[in-house]
Structure formats: structure tokens, C-alpha cells
Amino acid sequence: MWADTDTDIDYLNYSEVAELVAEMVGSKRLLPLSLGIFGTWGTGKSTVLRLVKRALHGSPDEYLFIDFDAWLYQDFDDARGALMSVIAKALHDEAPEGLKAKAKSFLGRVNKLRALGLLAEGGAAMAGVPTFGLLKKGMEGLGDLLTGNADGADYEAMGKAAGEVKEKGKGLLREAEKHSPPEEITAFRKEFGELLHGIEKTLVVVIDNLDRCTPPNAIHTLEAIRLFLFLPRTAFVVAADEDMVRHAVSSYFKNPSERLVQDYLDKLIQVPVRVPRLGVQEVRAYMLLLFAEAAGVDGEKLEALRRYLVDQLRQVWKPDADFSVDQVLGVLEPSDPDPLRRTLDLADRMAPLLAYSTTVKGNPRIIKRLLNVVRMRASIARKREMPIDEAVIAKLALFERCTSSNAVDALHDAINAGSGKPELLATIEAMDGNDADFEQALPQAMKPHLTFVRDWVGLEPKLGGYDLRPAVYLARETVPVRTVATLLSPAALQAVEVLRAIRTLNSPAARTALEGVDPSEHVAMMDALVRDMRRNADWMRSRDDFRGAIYLADASSGAAATLSRFIRTLDLPRRPPWMSTMLNGKTWAGA
Question: Are 258 and 225 in contact (CB under 8 A)?
């Protein structure tokens, strides 16, 4: 198993991105700097942040690092106030003795701004404190207020709020009348700048999980950087999903034009750096390292392999750049290479499918979660003494992840129909994936995934003739278990025989047979009926076995879902009239 957390150990050549960011942060002529590390969920933004910090930590006397998890505060504090309080507290703790008084004063000024409502849009008003009309009025209104151009409506709103506050709120109002909001903000920035100059370090604020916040909190955090905190000796490194930030801007400002959204982002984030999407070689290297780690490779040898693979990844632009399992084993030098080779071969074969799959796209977190699923299932298989290889588990888990629920249902139907040994897989494994007959042999539910299935079928091990019922059992956390007919009770087996031959949906014999069966066996009974129906491909004439299946579906929602999936996999140009009549009014059949 692998921990699903960010790390400062570079498995993916992210050090190149981190070194670029560290170089910009370390260049005093570029400060103040706001820099965005953009990438979708799971691509490694947090890991890049940690690598940036590691790259800069070589000069501890030059930098003061502050980590701010925007998501952590959003339900408990206003975004602007939380960020500024965290920074003020860190500066207070870092300040030498000669600056302690100024640092304490600055911390108090942040608290004063919060109390006066300058850092929140409604939080103070809810507590009975006027907010100077700092409500969501769009970019123009917010900018006017903070630059001293607010109109009388802002202060009229403040007066109305004052009428509802308690005595202490009136005291704050009198304090606010002495110093206008722009004056308070100017004094804040002045004291902040003096404190930074006195500490003589570059303040590096690392902001993570911004894309998990609500649109208001995301915008408030970014605005706090630019309006309150953007001063010499500061660098703000923000990790976020760019599309989510765009959505936050659009939502907060009521659907502005795309140009305004872009202009707004450009003002808040000066330098966008995007986490590169992984290609096949990066996914190969990542999986080889993960599998070597899970195999218990010695720490020093694992680090040697990591350095070797990262160096190879930095050469992938060359036409002849490549690395093989043999080369990996040459670096690791295991005493018994065969078990490790089998494991690494599996990782190497899976990598291209994970890199190209539209549902994975080389996402490191998704890859790690998929591999953890494989490891969990393999562990259960060992405990249950199941005769199934981990490579088989991995291949089927890959199918689940990279296709759809309907395609997985079709595969499991084929497994059940063949008593665990699906004839479908034996058939398509014997074909050339480029033949037109290959597509024709696939159930309708698999055809949208034709390109993936072609590559997946060629992935070792071959599954035709392999009893896959243990694999179906192991997949029960994502796919319902369907017990085969041989495990049915005698009463259920007898009921299946009756249902195969009924001539009417009002059959007394069917009703009597079902009354003697535990409802927990209904789905397994439907599996048995479906398996038998697959043996007869003639659907032009009315069939008694289908009638019995409908009777069972009417009695059990689970059995109905199984029959509905089966009907969808028939791939009929249109339902024959007799079938349409039987299914008329059956909501579970989509009729």
C-alpha cells in the first residue's frame, strides 16, 4: 500500500518545476511576487510546493516560510482575516527582541482591522459590528472602498448597521469615525513593510487548497494578497486548479466576460506555472518506483533508482531516450530478481494504458489509488486462499477504472454466463485487435471503449479460460457480487426451473415457488436465468424463460436491475413486439 499524501521525494521529475519556482522566488529583483502553481486535482501541486520549500531551505537565514491551508479556515474564519492573522503571528514569533514591540503592535492592528469589519464581508455584521458597507458590490465597488473612493452609500450602510449593534459596537463605530478605512489600511501596510525590513528575510507565503474553497473565500484570499500584503520582500506561491479559480471569479462577480476573468487573474497571479501532465515515460517511472518501494527494496537502492529514473526523464526529449525493466534491475541488483521482475513487468505494461486513458490521464493520485485497490484485493485473496494472481486482479481493476459501469456489468455478465470462464474474453484474445470482427464481437456497452479494450486485451496475463469468479468477489466494493447458480439453495434452484417454463405472468406455480425462497437469493436466481438466456440468441419469437425473468424482476428490485442490464447488452436494433408487450409499464426496464 502507498500513502495518499503529498511528499518532498521527487518520483516524477517535478524538481525541474520546483527549481524554476525557487529561482524566481529567490530573485530579489522580482519581488514582490505572486506565483500560481496550477494543475487539476491529484496532479501533484502540493508536492511541487514542498519541493519548492526544500529547494529554498538551503538558505534558512534568507526566508521566512508560512504555510496557509485556505480550506482549513473557510468554515471557521473569514478568509482575509485568517490569512493576515497567520502572517502577523508568524512575524511576531520571528521578530528579534528589538522588533518585538512593533511586531506586537502589528498583530494588534490586524485584530483591529478585523474588529472594524475591513477584512470580512458580513461576518462582522452578523456579530453586531458595522462593516463600512464592505459588501459584495463587484470589482469596482470593492476597489473604490479600498482606495478611498467610496461613496456616501457605504457610510450610510454603516450608520444603519450601527443602530442595531450593542454598546460595544457603538464604541467601534466611534473608533472608525476617527480613522477612515483607507487610513487604517495605509497604516497597516506601512507597519507591515517596516517589520519585514527589520526582520531582513524574504517572506514566502505558501497557499494550498485554494480550489477547495467556496468562491467568496477563494476571491477574498487572493484579494488579501494584493490589497493588504503585496509589499517588497514578499512572495506568495498559490497552488490551485486554474479552472476552479476561474469558476470562483465568474461566480463571485456574476458571470463577467472571459476577458474580465482573465484580466482579473492576471492582476492577482503574476506568473502562472502549470504542473506538467505525465506522459507514458513519466507514468512508467512512477509505477516502477512505487512497485519497487512496495516490494521492500532497500532505502539506499530505492534512492539510487529514483535518481536514475529522474535523470532519464530529463532526457526524454531525445529520440533514443528510454529505460527498461532490465536497466532498473541493474540499478537495484536484487539477489533474486525473478519475483521483482514479474512485479515490474506488470507496472511497465499497465503504464501506457494509464497514461492514455481518458479517465486517468496519467494522474498520479488516481494511479496510486488504483494500485492501492489492487493491493487490498490481493491481500483479501491471500487471506481467503483464493487461487488468483495479483496480475489478474490488476488487469480487471484497470478495466473497472478505465471503462464505464455498463462495460463492467457486461464483463461480469460474461463471467457469470461462462461459469467464471468468459467465452467473450477467449474469443477476442484470439483476434487481431485491428480486425473489424473485433469490434463486432464486443457487447454494445464495451464498444465506446474500443481503443482501450484493444490494448487491454493484449495486456498479460490472458484471461480466456481463467476462472474469474474470485475476481468478481474481490470487486464487490465497486460491483455487486452475483452468486453463481451452483451456490443456490435447493428451493432457489427449484424456483429457477419453474420460472424457465411459465406461460403467463400470473402463474400460480411461480408465485408458490418464490414464496419458498429467501429474497436474498433473488439476484443469484436472475443470474442463473440470464446465463441460460444467453445460450439462445433467437429473440424474434416469444420466450418463456424471458417471461420468468420478468416475473422475478417484478418481485425483486435487485433482480430487476440485473435483467435491465442484460436487456441493454442484447444490442437489438429494436425490441421485438412480443418483448415490448411484456415490458410495457415496467419502469425498471426503461420502457
Answer: no
Cβ–Cβ < 8 Å for 417, 540: no
Predicted TM-score (pTM) of this structure: 0.62
Instruction: Write out the H or E segment, with its range, that includes residue 571.
Output: none
> What number is the average pLDDT over the span 300-323?
84
pLDDT at 550: 92
**CA 420 to CA 409: how far, in whole Å?**
14
* Cell 465568474, located at residue: 250
Structure-block grid coordinates of residue 119: 477584512
Nearest of 420, 392, 414 to residue 487 by alpha carbon: 420
Q: Is the dihedral of CA 251, 253, 255, 257 positive or negative?
A: negative
Confirm if 235 and 55 have CB atoms less than 8 A apart: no
Query: Cα–Cα distance between 47 and 289 in angstroms, integer?
Result: 16
Across all residues in the chain, what is the average pLDDT?
Answer: 78
Angle (nearest 5°) at CA 308 between 307 and 309: 95
Distance CA 469, CA 457 (A): 18
Please state, in angstroms and rounded to a whole number, the distance separating the CA atoms of residues 439 and 428: 9
Helix or strand (DSSP H, E) at 482: none
- Assign 173 a pLDDT band (cuts: 50, 70, 90): very low
Half-sphere exposure of 67 (CA within 13 A, CB side): 9
Residue 144: predicted pLDDT: 35
Contact 106, 187 (CB under 8 A): no
Q: What is the mean pLDDT of residues 35-42?
A: 87
**pLDDT (0 to 100) of residue 552:** 92
Q: Answer whether 368's CB lies under 8 Å from 4's CB.
A: yes
Q: What is the pLDDT of residues 539-556, one digit of tens each?
A: 888 888 899 999 999 999
422 in helix, strand or coil? coil
Q: Are strands 63-69 and 271-274 parallel, antiparallel or unpaired?
A: unpaired
Confidence at residue 488, expressed as pLDDT on a 0 to 100 scale: 67
- Strand ranges in 243-286 using DSSP code E only, listed in sequence order: 271-274
Question: Where is average pLDDT lowest: 159-173, 349-363, 465-479?
Answer: 159-173
Sheet strands side by side (includes 33-38):
63-69, 202-208, 234-240, 33-38, 271-274
The dihedrals phi and psi of 370, each to the nearest 5 degrees, come to: -60, -45
Q: Which residue has the cell 494504458?
A: 353
pLDDT at 282 exceeding the cut of 70 = yes
User: Could you count the other beta carbons within 10 Å of the beta carbon of residue 38?
Assistant: 20
Residue 443, preceding peptide bond in cis (omega within 30° of 0): no
Whole-number Cα distances in Å, 335 to 85, 297, 331, 338, 543: 56, 11, 12, 9, 63
Q: Do residues 470 and 507 touch, judged by C-beta distance below 8 A?
A: no
> Rounded mean pLDDT of 96-104?
86
Q: What is the largest CA-CA distance in the chain?
A: 97
Q: What is the DSSP letter of 319?
A: T
98 CB-side CA count, 13 A: 5
**pLDDT over 70 at 162, yes or no:** no
Task: Please report how many Cα atoms fall inside a 13 Å half-sphere around the Cα of residue 163, on the Cβ side.
Answer: 5
Other CB atoms within a 10 A radius of the CB of residue 99 amount to 18
Please choose, from the candidates 515, 512, 585, the residue with its C-alpha nearest in 3D space to the C-alpha of residue 550. Answer: 585
